[in-house]
Amino acid sequence: MKILITSATPFELAPLRQYLNDQFWPHSETSFQQDALEVMLLTTGVGMALTAFNLGGLFTKHRFDLAINAGIAGAYPASGFAKGDVVNVTTERFADLGVEEADGSFTDVHELGLVGANASPFSNGTLLNPATGHDFLPKAKGLTVNKVHGYQPSIDAILRKYPADVESMEGAAFFLACLMAGQPFLQIRSISNYVETRNRESWEIPKAISSLNSVLVEVVGSLG
User: Fold this and answer.
1) What CATH number does the domain located at 2-223 have?
2) What pLDDT was estimated at residue 223?
3) Given this model, what pLDDT does residue 131 score?
C-alpha cells in the first residue's frame, strides 16, 4: 500500500516525520517503508495555488492508495468543536472565488455562471469526498479561504452564505486536485483556534499539532 500525507507546512507533520524515521525504513527525507506499506510526505506550501500546483504535478507521476491532507484549521464557534479536536473534513467549498458587488455582498463564480455549479467535480458548488469508509473521526464541512477571517462582520457574512464548520487555506484545492485525478483521499484537520475576531494569543497550535499527529500515527499504524 502506498499513501501520501501532505501538509501546508513542515511543522504540522514534524511529530509524524519523527515517528516514521524511528519506525520505518527511510528511502529518502520524504519516503518511508515498513513491509508493504510506503508513506510519502509532501509539504505543498501555504494556500490554494501552491497546493493545487504541487499536487497536480505529483499526481501525474504517482498513484496512491490514499492521499491524506493533514493540518490545523480554525473552527467556527457554532460547530461545537473544541481546540485540539481532530475532524474529518468531508465537504469543501471555495469561500472567496468570485466578485464583491457594489453593495458589499459577494457573488461566487457558480452564481456568476463562470463555473457550472454541477460541472465536474462540483456538486451544487460544493466538492464532496465520495469515500464513506472513514468514520473514525467527527465529520466537518470545510470552507477554504485566501484570507483567514478575523473581522466579525465578515465572519457573519460568510456563514450566512455558506454552511461550514472549519476554515483552512488549502482544503478545497486538495479536494479539487484529488477529484480531478481520481485519487482516493481524506482530509484530517485539528482545531487550533476559533474563527472569531482576530486574537492570535488564543490559538493553541502545539495542542492541535499534538492531537493531529497522534491520529496520523494511529492511521499509519492501522494501514500497516
Assistant:
1) 3.40.50.1580
2) 85
3) 84
pLDDT tens figures, 9-40? 999 999 999 999 999 999 998 999 999 999 99
Indicate the residue type of 33: Q
Query: What is the per-residue pLDDT for 115?
Result: 96
Residues facing residue 66 across a β-bridge: 3
Cβ proximity of 25 and 38 under 8 Å: no
Residue 78 has pLDDT above 70, yes or no: yes
**DSSP-derived 3-state class of residue 124:** coil
Strands (E), the chain: 2-7, 25-26, 31-34, 37-43, 66-75, 86-92, 98-100, 106-108, 127-128, 139-144, 166-168, 185-194
Is pLDDT above 70 for 86? yes
Could you tell me the CA-to-CA distances from 26 to 31, 35, 39, 81 in Å, in that order? 6, 12, 9, 36
Instruction: Give yes or no for a contact between 67 and 191, defined as CB atoms under 8 angstroms apart.
Output: no
What does the DSSP 8-state code read for residue 129?
A: -
- Its pTM stands at 0.94
Give the residue-averaged pLDDT of 43-59: 96
User: For residue 12, which phi and psi values (nearest 5 degrees)?
Assistant: -70, -25
Give how far Cα 27 sits from Cα of 21, 31, 217, 222, Å.
10, 5, 19, 21
Q: For residue 186, which amino acid is it?
A: L
97 and 108 Cβ atoms separated by less than 8 Å: yes
Q: Where are the domains of the chain?
A: 2-223
The Cα-based distances of 154 to 67, 105, 108, 147 in angstroms read 32, 10, 15, 11
